[in-house]
Amino acid sequence: MMQTFISTETDLYKEIVEGTFESTIVHSDYEVLYVNEAAAQLLGAEKEDLIGAPVLDIFPVDAKERIADRIERGLSEGIVGELIEQAIITLDGRLIEVELSCHPFIYNDKRAILSVLRNITSRKEIEWELQKRVNELSTPIVPVLDGLSVIPLVGTIDFDRAEQLLNTLPIKIKSETDLTDIIIDFSGIYNMDELVIDFILKIDSIMRLLGVQPILTGIRPELAQKALVMGEELHSIKTMSTVKKALAHFKSA
């Protein structure tokens, strides 16, 4: 009687998992043991082609070690993997963003991980577009003197924002036909890392090519030291400690 109840309960569980819209993968020892139809569709493959495949194959190279550690902690310590956002690569070559949660459990007498993936690509695209708009609006070019404007940078410069600034600032600069000098102020930037150094070098070169002399202000000593460690030379870049000092310099010139 008890055996019949367990079998019925197991069949019901499988039916629920198979019918859910949530993409569900069961894996152990980094090998896929089970996928439901939703997961097969998400990954762009047939279910039978996924069984036995290495589960880490769907993750970008730079994420494999982090995901492997997360799986190992689940298998060896029973730690539930918190909900994270992660890019994955489908078997038909698409790069998509998912929410990923991992739950350790026993599957056919083996320690296994039940991973649930939810496609959030559309939501992330909307977020990126909104952030792009915010960045554009929050990066004004402020005229202060004849031929001189100030760009006050605020927040964090990550890869996406650096690319957006490098694409949009030259267009804004070209529209300012009488602009000869521009102060780019970094005092409101939170992160002072390799990305910022790379951005400084690129934006300085772009401004010069457009015939505008850039003056960088608000660069902290630790950033200059980090540039030296990276082997980058900032000596050729015109800098001043503050916007106030840069303005005083132009007024006295």
From TrEMBL:
Pfam families: PAS_9, STAS. It comes from the Bacteria. Transmembrane segments: none annotated. Residues 25-78 form the PAS domain. Gene3D superfamilies: PAS domain, STAS domain. SUPFAM superfamilies: PYP-like sensor domain (PAS domain), SpoIIaa-like. It comes from Alkalihalophilus lindianensis. This is PAS domain S-box protein. NCBIfam families: sensory_box. Residues 82-132 form the PAC domain. Residues 138-250 form the STAS domain. The lineage of its organism: Bacteria, Bacillati, Bacillota, Bacilli, Bacillales. CDD domains: PAS, STAS_RsbR_RsbS_like. InterPro entries: Bact_StressResp_Reg, PAS, PAS-assoc_C, PAS-like_dom_sf, STAS_dom, STAS_dom_sf.
